[in-house]
């Protein structure tokens, strides 16, 4: 990560109609709380981000919800393993804990990414994923802005997936 | 219904929506690729990956199978549509599924899997909103990326009102999207099988890339316990790293998005838990990710295409739709006219010929005029016009017509290629032009009579609403032979190629070219040289075109030996020498001819840049002018030289940016296509009558463009070189 990558990342998100905020590790929980449009559900972030400070405990987010809770939720909070500066993309990993469901079956997606995980460009991101895929057989969603469709006669944001995306960049260095 | 009626109906009913969307995508493409640091490099990388992958296809398929199986999935390679459908039906039956939800997949359209499953009583639901609209309307896609491009918002609102009992009328695009999302959302969570396509497959990991924006493909996979992915065998690439150029190019090339909302890189079966969406007690993490994965790869003619030296390139296609959106004819008619059973746009000719056969390709292949505007737009550099030409040639050879003897007398074909009457007439235009000049002006008077025009329409399909070219009694070659060379101490020496139109019809522009060159101290010769072969090439008469190309190459060789450059007035002939001849003559003579051939204003630009005396040609003195470049000239990047020369001479130049004038050689003369040609021309007309342009004199480089503009405007256009004399 470089300062310019972060600046570019946020500029790209802005252009996509997604919003982004910065937060220090110790203010994480309170910051996330402000971004929720309740009811909110989430997955444990510590697993993906490897940092106990980045926990949803103490927020109103229902972590590891039931399927019915998920469908009734407005906001979903999950973590991204990478941010891609030149596109404003986040890389989401479908986990056994249902991260993909929480990212997708909600109107508002709040994505948490560590500043140190924001890479400059698509090439770096794909090369990173390639190594990981060969080791773990994993999957990833490169998500860029809200879901959208132009199939109903003009561009509409919010098709099958989220209508709003907010990226929380955690300062971790 | 005749072809002309069919095209007229589609232009009336779907033309407006198609034009607005396709042109919007096309403009978006130009803007989006311009942001890339190295667009050409990325395209070259994408091309190289596809070339390598298709070359090593059998080996990569073996590797892919190993990867998929070690991930816990299965891979089935189906010979044809029926084979694929049988397999998918058995998977659905084994799962005892009553509903299959689908994300958008053209390959699934190709095999018509919906019909096969419906026959088993399975409820198949398209979840891409465009595909769902078409499923409700029982219509076929008109575009390979945006399948309902032909339907306006109003038409979709009417369709929903007719099909559903909604509480409130749905009007805005937001209303319609919200309604569809809710309705489909219920059906997705209740389905057992999720059927997706795959834009790319990686042999090293057994992963797939799905390029989408709505999120329906993600839901289709995440909400079901059985994932079936259907793709053509050509979708495999060696490694995950290889995905990168495609990820960056596919959205930009197609709809002009830098990237689509979601690029799912899945290594199925995915880890997402399979949940019961009605469960209010069990947390998500307590459900197992117990999911089956079946990769169904379709041959259906593709392995045959791989063996075919001309069709092979089609397999590099990533289905981005750039060739549709950049095509002037497609912008007017859409994929319901410019398409076959499944695929549409320029590349569809290759797909449909290889998959369905030549009868299907023949239904729409003539809509490719060879303007080449798709060539630079294609992210994998497929020579789409060449594929159309080859397929046209093959169709010609199959369709021998009974009335052949009639044309053979008038327009003897060098090679018996079996082309139909109309194609032979246009393809052998050199003979017509020679006869026309020889007997002018009588030939022109005769051609203009009602009886002649009626007969031409009937026998040759030449639309009576088109003005015919007027042949000049004195050709450019004759005129030049009767004068002395005027340059005492030349800086360069050229052979001015007397193309068919400059030599027989628009002789004045040829004389202007000679005078300008001589004024700039260039020694000029204008020898008789055969016509370039552009005319037969356009008709798919490749053997005849090759014969022309070889004779032209032979005729110009001594002049090249003699140190002369070749200067060409007609851009479509210049494009033959520098592009198309690569396929028609040997490598060495092609390399020499193409390296030494120049379009006339390109040459003048070079002369001026290298110190020629600018004051020797007429200056523009700040005059305003409108310039329409020629499609093939623009593809070769030569528009800039004409604009450069005119600006240097003091003109204020406004340029057009439509992809093609619509005339495209003989295309606009043909009765079947006259109205389409004029519809395309209307877009050019609109630009030439815009506020700041309407009072400007018009210049255009191409013969066809000049004829088209002449029919569109009151103002009579000229060739830009004519501005430089007088």
From TrEMBL, chain A:
Residues 23-170 form the LUD domain. SUPFAM superfamilies: NagB/RpiA/CoA transferase-like. It comes from the Archaea. It comes from Halogeometricum limi. InterPro entries: FTHF_cligase-like_sf (IPR024185), LUD_dom (IPR003741), NagB/RpiA_transferase-like (IPR037171). It holds the Pfam family LUD_dom. This is L-lactate dehydrogenase complex protein LldG. Gene3D superfamilies: NagB/RpiA/CoA transferase-like (3.40.50.10420).
UniProtKB/TrEMBL annotation, chain B:
GO terms for biological process: lactate metabolic process. Keywords: 4Fe-4S, Electron transport, Iron, Iron-sulfur, Metal-binding, Repeat, Transport. It comes from the Archaea. GO terms for molecular function: 4 iron, 4 sulfur cluster binding; oxidoreductase activity. Transmembrane segments: none annotated. This is Iron-sulfur cluster-binding protein. Residues 360-387 form the 4Fe-4S ferredoxin-type domain.
């Amino acid at each position: 990560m470089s300062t310019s990558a972060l600046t570019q990342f946020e500029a790209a998100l802005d252009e996509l109609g997604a919003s982004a905020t910065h937060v220090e590790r110790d203010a994480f929980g309170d910051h996330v709380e402000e971004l929720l449009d309740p009811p909110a559900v989430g997955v444990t972030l510590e697993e993906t981000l490897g940092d106990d400070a980045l926990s949803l405990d103490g927020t109103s987010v229902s972590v590891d919800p039931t399927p019915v809770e998920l469908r009734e939720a407005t906001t979903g909070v999950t973590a991204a393993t990478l941010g891609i500066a030149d596109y404003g993309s986040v890389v989401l990993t479908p986990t056994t804990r249902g991260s993909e469901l929480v990212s997708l079956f909600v109107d508002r997606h709040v994505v948490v990414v560590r500043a140190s995980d924001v890479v400059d460009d698509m090439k770096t991101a794909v090369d990173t994923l390639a190594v990981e895929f060969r080791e773990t057989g994993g999957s990833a969603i490169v998500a860029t802005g809200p879901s959208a469709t132009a199939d109903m006669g003009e561009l509409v944001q919010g098709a099958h997936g989220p209508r709003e995306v907010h990226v929380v960049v955690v300062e971790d260095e | 219904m005749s072809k002309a009626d069919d095209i007229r109906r589609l232009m009336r009913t779907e033309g407006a929506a198609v034009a607005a969307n396709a042109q919007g995508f096309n403009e978006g493409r130009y803007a989006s690729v311009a942001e890339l640091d190295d667009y050409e490099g990325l395209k070259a990388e994408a091309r190289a990956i596809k070339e390598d992958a298709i070359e090593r296809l059998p080996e990569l398929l073996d590797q892919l199978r190993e990867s998929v199986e070690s991930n816990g999935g299965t891979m089935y390679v189906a010979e044809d549509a029926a084979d694929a459908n049988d397999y998918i039906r058995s998977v659905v039956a084994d799962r005892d599924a009553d509903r299959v939800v689908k994300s958008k997949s053209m390959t699934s359209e190709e095999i018509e899997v919906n019909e096969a499953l419906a026959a088993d009583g399975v409820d198949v639901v398209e979840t891409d909103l465009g595909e769902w609209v078409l499923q409700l309307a029982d219509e076929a896609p008109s575009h390979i990326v945006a399948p309902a491009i032909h339907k306006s918002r109003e038409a979709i609102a009417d369709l929903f009102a007719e099909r559903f009992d909604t509480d409130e009328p749905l009007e805005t695009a937001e209303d319609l999207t919200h309604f569809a999302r809710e309705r489909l959302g219920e059906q997705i969570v209740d389905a057992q099988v999720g059927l997706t396509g795959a834009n790319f497959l990686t042999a090293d990991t057994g992963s797939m890339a799905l390029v989408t924006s709505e999120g329906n493909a993600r839901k289709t996979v995440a909400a079901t316990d059985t994932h079936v992915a259907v793709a053509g065998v050509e979708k495999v690439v060696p490694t995950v790293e290889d995905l990168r150029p495609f990820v960056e190019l596919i959205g930009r090339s197609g709809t002009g998005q830098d990237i689509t909302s979601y690029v799912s890189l899945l290594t199925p079966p995915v880890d997402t838990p399979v949940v019961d969406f009605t469960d209010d007690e069990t947390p998500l993490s307590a459900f197992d990710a117990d999911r089956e994965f079946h990769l169904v790869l379709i041959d259906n003619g593709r392995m045959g295409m791989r063996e075919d030296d001309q069709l092979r390139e089609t397999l590099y296609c990533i289905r981005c739709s750039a060739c549709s959106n950049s095509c002037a004819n497609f912008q007017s008619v859409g994929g319901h006219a410019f398409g076959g059973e499944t695929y549409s746009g320029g590349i569809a000719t290759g797909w449909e010929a290889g998959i369905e056969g030549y009868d299907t390709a023949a239904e729409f292949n003539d809509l490719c005029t060879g303007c080449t505007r798709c060539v630079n737009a294609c992210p994998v550099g497929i020579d789409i016009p060449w594929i159309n030409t080859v397929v046209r040639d093959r169709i010609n050879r199959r369709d021998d017509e009974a009335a052949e003897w009639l044309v053979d007398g008038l327009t003897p074909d060098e090679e018996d290629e079996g082309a139909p009457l109309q194609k032979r007439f246009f393809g052998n235009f050199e003979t017509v032009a020679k006869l026309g000049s020889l007997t002018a002006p009588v030939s022109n008077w005769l051609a203009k009579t009602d009886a002649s025009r009626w007969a031409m329409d009937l026998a040759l399909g030449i639309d009576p609403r088109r003005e015919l070219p007027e042949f000049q009694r004195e050709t450019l070659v004759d005129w030049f032979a009767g004068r002395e060379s005027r340059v005492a101490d030349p800086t360069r020496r050229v052979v001015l190629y007397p193309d068919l139109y400059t030599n027989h019809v628009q002789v004045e522009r040829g004389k202007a070219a000679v005078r300008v060159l001589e004024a700039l101290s260039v020694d000029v010769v204008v020898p008789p040289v055969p016509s370039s072969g552009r005319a037969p090439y356009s008709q798919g008469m490749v053997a005849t075109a090759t014969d022309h190309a070889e004779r032209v190459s032979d005729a110009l060789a001594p002049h090249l030996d003699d140190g002369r450059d070749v200067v060409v007035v007609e851009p479509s002939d210049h494009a033959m020498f520098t592009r198309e001849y690569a396929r028609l003559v040997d490598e060495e003579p092609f390399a020499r001819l193409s390296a030494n051939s120049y379009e006339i204003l390109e040459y003048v630009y070079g002369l001026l840049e290298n110190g020629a005396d600018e004051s020797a040609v007429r200056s523009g003195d700040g005059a305003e002018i409108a310039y329409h470049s020629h499609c093939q000239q623009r593809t070769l990047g030569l528009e800039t030289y004409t604009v450069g020369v005119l600006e240097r001479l003091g003109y204020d130049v406004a340029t057009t940016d439509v992809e093609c004038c619509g005339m495209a050689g003989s295309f606009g003369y043909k009765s079947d296509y006259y109205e389409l040609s004029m519809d395309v021309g209307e877009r050019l007309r609109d630009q030439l009558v815009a506020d700041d342009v309407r009072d400007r004199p018009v210049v255009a480089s191409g013969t066809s463009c000049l004829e088209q503009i002449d029919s569109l405007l009151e103002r009579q256009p000229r060739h830009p070189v004519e501005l430089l004399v007088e």
